[in-house]
Amino acid sequence: MNIRAVFIAAAFAASSSTSAIAQSNRDAAAILARDASIDAHLVKARAAAGFDFTGTLARLCVAPARFPLTVRDAAPSGRVPARETWYADPAKVFDNLYFVGSKIHNSWALVTSDGIIILDTLFTYNSEEEIVGGLKKLGLDPAKIKYVIITHAHGDHVGGAKLLQDRFKAHVVMGGPDWDSIERSVNGYPEGKPKRDITGDDGQKITLGGTSVTIVTTPGHTRGTLSMIFQVKDNGRPLTVVYSGGTAFNFPSTGPNFDIYIKSQAKLAAAAAAANATVFLSNHSEFDNAVPKIKMLAARKPGEPNPFEIGKEAIARYFVVGGECAEAAKLRFAE
Q1: Is 122 left (phi over 0), alpha (psi -120 to 50) or beta?
Q2: Rounded CA gap, 101 and 118, in Å?
Q3: SS3 label, residue 293
Q4: pTM here?
Q5: Which DSSP string do the residues of 191-252 spell out, in sequence order?
Q6: In this structure, are residues 113 and 251 in contact, taking their beta carbons and an 8 Å threshold?
Q7: What does the alpha-carbon distance between residue 128 and residue 59 come to, in Å, rounded to a whole number?
Q8: CA–centroid distance for 262 within its chain
Q9: Cα(214)–Cα(207) distance, rounded to whole angstroms?
Q10: Quick check: 139 and 175 in contact, CB under 8 A?
Q11: Spatial CA neighbour of 166 closest among 225, 115, 137, 124
Q12: Is the N or the C terminus of the chain less surrounded, counting Cβ atoms within 10 Å?
């Protein structure tokens, strides 16, 4: 190799090294910028959560899991957890709303003059005792169940739908994409599926005995997730409830899926504000603190507020937590 060739090779190597260093610096800067953005979203979420929504913050911001692009049609494990790990006593929460859920998962009975509307139905293994048995313990007749609204087709919420549909001829309401997922499933419902019935649409009202539940479609948690707005009474005083139908990020962790979720959080926040909702409910106690609040209700004195009435400002903060945690997770899981 002559001297000129040596100089050319050396110059090329130096240029390549400089380019690699520059690219490495750009990559490092991009990572630092991304991490700073993630931290900014987490700070906003923590501030919004305060001491009111620590469970939601922990699930969505502290330890969100990445989910694969393909969702398996897996069969339930078949193992029934020990009763002491899930059983909770039923309770009256408002004049016309009763808790018939478990320690972890919520189910609610909205009582009207013409019958009962059940919101979510737990697992297959505990819906009989918690919902049917719970209503009886409360002095309510499960035969009066007329509607069952399922927020989304996961086994911890749709498990008792078939039971209530078959035994009491209740109408089952669910989002269209989630009805589709149930029908497509081969392995997920070894004890049978609820029959396709009412498809819940945005703005649709499920009305019974003068009480209406307004459906708000909030895709994200699943494609067909339904949330709700309805009224309850506390010692005769009307209050508006916003019911969040899906919270965790257990969908394929792609940017577009997070965008759908974020949009739905903003949509439900706006619907809650427009309805002047001051009561927040969910289908998991870790998100709405239902189980500890029921214990607080037992010690409530005349004139004290209902612990479930948290106010419009707190409800607005709840949806900030969901949106900001989703923005952080979107950046964290970006390829």
Answers
A1: left
A2: 11
A3: helix
A4: 0.91
A5: T--PPP-EEE-TT-EEEETTEEEEEEE--SSSTT-EEEEEEEEETTEEEEEEEE---S--S-
A6: no
A7: 28
A8: 12
A9: 9
A10: no
A11: 124
A12: C
Which residues make beta-bridge pairs with 239? 232
Residues 232, 148: Cα–Cα separation, whole Å = 17
Q: Which of 119, 95, 120, 109 is nearest to 144 (CA)?
A: 109
Helix (H, G, I), strand (E, B) or coil at 282: strand
Sheet holding 97-99, edge to edge: 91-94, 97-99, 108-112, 115-119, 145-149, 171-175, 198-200
pLDDT in tens, 42-70: 999 999 999 999 999 999 999 888 998 88
Residues sharing a CB contact under 8 Å with residue 216, sequence separation 6 or more, in sequence order: 202, 203, 226, 227, 228, 229, 267, 268, 271
Residue-wise pLDDT tens digits, 206-232: 999 999 999 999 999 999 999 999 999
Q: The tokens 């997770």 sit on which residue? A: 329
Structure tokens at 308: 């479930």
